Amino acid sequence: MPKNRIVKFRVSNDQYERISNNKQSKGYVTLASYLRDLALDKNFEVESRIFENNRLIKEILSILKDGTKPRK
């Protein structure tokens, strides 16, 4: 879907740093994609749990496959 509308708003330096840190912790590359998903009520909690479950499953499979201990 083409993106042809611009939305602007101002934030303080502290707010920008918090937003940027949240963006990185959620795995987003661009601020625009993070804010777009946030504004459209994307459920970050569900998504983060899915990512964590996938990581754990891969770790379990690795343990079962070659007997390596999990990394902490």
Structural features, described:
- The structure is a single chain.
- This protein has helices at residues 13-25, 31-39, 44-66.
- It is mainly α and 72 residues long.
- The protein folds into 2 domains: 11-41; 43-72.
- The longest helix has 23 residues, at 44-66.
Average pLDDT score:
87
**Estimated radius of gyration:** 17 Å
Number of helices: 3
Portion of residues in beta strands equals under 5%
Instruction: Indicate the percent of residues in helices.
Output: 55-70%
Structural class: mainly alpha
User: What count of domains describes the coordinates?
Assistant: 2
Low-confidence stretches: none
Tally of DSSP β-strands: 0
Order of helices and strands: HHH
The shape, in one word, is elongated
Biggest β-sheet strands, sense, barrel? none
Distance between the termini: 40 Å
Short recap of the structure:
This protein has 72 residues and is mainly alpha-helical. The chain contains three helices and no strands.
Characteristic key phrases:
single chain, 72 residues, mainly alpha, 3 helices, elongated
Topology overview:
Blueprint: H1 13-25, H2 31-39, H3 44-66
